[in-house]
Model the fold of this input.
Amino acid sequence: MTSHAIRFLMLGLAGSILATSVEAQTSPTPAAQSAPSSPDTNEAFLTGLRRVGVMAGQVVECSADADKQAHIAKAMSLANEIAIHFGLKAAFNYVGAVGYGSGHPFDKANCSQAIAGWKQIVATYLNR
Done:
């Protein structure tokens, strides 16, 4: 595992621990429970962010060593955008998934699909 993958994994784990401890300290009121969910509490939204994060991590691992830093920088730029627009919980979910995607064994035959999907995400959300 590369040092960057380890950093992503540690950041993701720290984020999940922080998100869990914050949730445990706050107890929602009955009015908050009936309000529509925001993106950072919508489980389907967070699952989608995790999938994108895993894809980004796999792209880092599929890349040549010379290109890894550029892919990491794009993944972190997207994390910044997620934090700004959807909050830290959403960003931590995404970054944790990036670490998982780059540190967990996967079938490298799927690299072309991950790279194509990541290029589409970068073009849609980062190259505006």
